[in-house]
Amino acid sequence: MENNLVIELYDVGKRYGRKELFQGITKVIQPGQCIAVTGSNGSGKSTLLKLIAGITRPTAGTIRLIWQERILDNEQRLQFLGLLSPELVFYNNLTGIENLLFFAKGRGVICTSQQAKAAIAKVGLQTDNFLGTYSTGMKQRLKLALIQMISPPLWLLDEPSSNLDKAGKTLVETCIKGALHSGATVIIATNESWEAKYASDKISLN
């Protein structure tokens, strides 16, 4: 599927009570572009990704996701994006393959067991282990397997290399390059220079 997704942010701001995270963010993100969202801890990097995903709303400004000249509502947005976030929690009583199939189906993407098995093997995991046996780094790898398997037009990556060793970070780099090669739009919340090097533009929240 050709990526026609345009993301428009106009004067976007977010506050929680008296605490203002950021304000005045205006950016038009074109299909296939890579954007790095940078800023100190607590500056709102994760929050901005959730605003784009439609999980939460801005307190100022507007965010529009436009697919083939059609503005997507919050529910429709979820069919066009994949969010790799610490808040994505898998089920410990399911195997890795069962988790992938469950979450893909919840996104409206029907995958076969063979596709899920291949996705898990691609990130260096065993297909039949229960999530209760996974380390934090292994769960992060499974999130990478999920987003690769559903292959959305928009990848929202919230500090994707967290909890990963050197081999895992190489895997993240491979995933980012693969997503961009396929024409996907990639927005990365990061303070890692090697993750941001693929970005053609950035949003600084400092």
Q: What would your notes on this structure say?
A:
This protein has helices at 45-53, 74-77, 96-106, 113-122, 136-150, 166-181, 193-196; strands at residues 5-16, 19-29, 34-38, 60-67, 70-71, 81-84, 154-158, 185-189, 201-204. The protein has 206 residues and is α/β, with parallel strands linked by helices. It has a five-stranded parallel sheet with strand order 6-7-8-3-9, with helices on both faces. A four-stranded antiparallel sheet has the order 2-1-4-5, covered by helices on one side. α4 packs across α5 and α5 (136-150) runs parallel beside α6. The chain is globular. The mean pLDDT is 93.
SSE arrangement:
Elements: E1 5-16, E2 19-29, E3 34-38, H1 45-53, E4 60-67, E5 70-71, H2 74-77, E6 81-84, H3 96-106, H4 113-122, H5 136-150, E7 154-158, H6 166-181, E8 185-189, H7 193-196, E9 201-204
Parallel strand pairs: 3-8, 3-9, 6-7, 7-8
Antiparallel strand pairs: 1-2, 1-4, 4-5
Helix pairs in contact: 3-4, 3-5, 4-5, 5-6
Strand content: 25-35%
Give the distance, in angstroms, between the N- and C-terminal Cα atoms: 36 Å
Q: Going across the major beta sheet, what is the strand order?
A: 6-7-8-3-9
- What pattern of helices and strands is seen along the backbone? EEEHEEHEHHHEHEHE
Count the helices. How many? Answer: 7
DSSP helix fraction: 25-40%
- Uncertain regions: pLDDT < 50 for 5+ in a row? none
The main β sheet shows up as:
5 strands, parallel
Rough outline: globular
Q: How would you state the average pLDDT, rounded? A: 93
- What is the alpha-carbon Rg in Å? 17 Å
Structural category = alpha/beta
According to DSSP, the number of beta strands is 9
